[in-house]
């Protein structure tokens, strides 16, 4: 989900001359790794018409968890009622976005102590700049985090291919001032406390680890904090990195070698992580590619965020990403023809900046998406 500060981006890609691809290229299978079609439900029936092979659709708050499930029941991979095998399908993702994390009351810290706090106490703790009682009155009763995690577990059980997402940390987002008059500011001075965001993220990551699911992660102006949140869960599970001396001894097992970590049972962290619309400084790519990290890290790029707004470091950043860890997305809120334009534009841009042919680009991105979603069980979709 993009930052609201940049405004709507529905037409950015469609103004680009590279927003069309030949039928032969589309037929190879192009996968949108992150999008939000439930934001515009009246266009959802168009999903089978889209030329992408698959849409990986995200949920963000209480309102859209069931909407994502409904779309997956109708158009999901392996569950679709659409008879046309060439029609676009969806893979669902269930998660709570950091913009809305204040709407969850953390009753799971230290295993849950059963202590009940009031709505006012919760929001005073979860938000910065001490909200007034008048502002708190405009907010709903918070939902217990334990209840949300239990509901998410049921959705993941219903959909064996489902991801956890969209989750993450955001230091820029400010809550809207819903009671603002025509001459008042429409953004409040309140942000979600970072410690609260981290707690909500942590419990979702632990659930993803428990169930062996990939996650799609949002990070804005909090790249170090986001990495540290994962590193905390990685602790004690780091991969053994063999020295050059032992590598010369050949492909033998070494004590402590955790190369098959994905098959070694549940962990407190997800096995595969997608950093969506990745916009951190390029050096963070190197940080995330540390060979000791016991999870597979993928980097996804969108035309709207990474190209459409003139991010000048995109070519340099793209070249740092291993070819098998690269994904593309629309991050679009509507399953209209604009979604195709966004995807075509980012495919063309990746091909240009990596020096790849379009056919080669689409095939590699397809392999990557399948591995990200399905792990060792990846199949052609």
UniProtKB/TrEMBL annotation:
GO MF terms, alphabetically ordered: hydrolase activity, acting on ester bonds
SUPFAM superfamilies: Metallo-dependent hydrolases (SSF51556)
Comp. bias intervals (Acidic residues): 254-263
Region (Disordered), start-end ranges: 245-266
Domain of life of the source: Eukaryota
Gene3D superfamilies xrefs: Metal-dependent hydrolases (3.20.20.140)
Protein name in UniProt: Metallo-dependent hydrolase
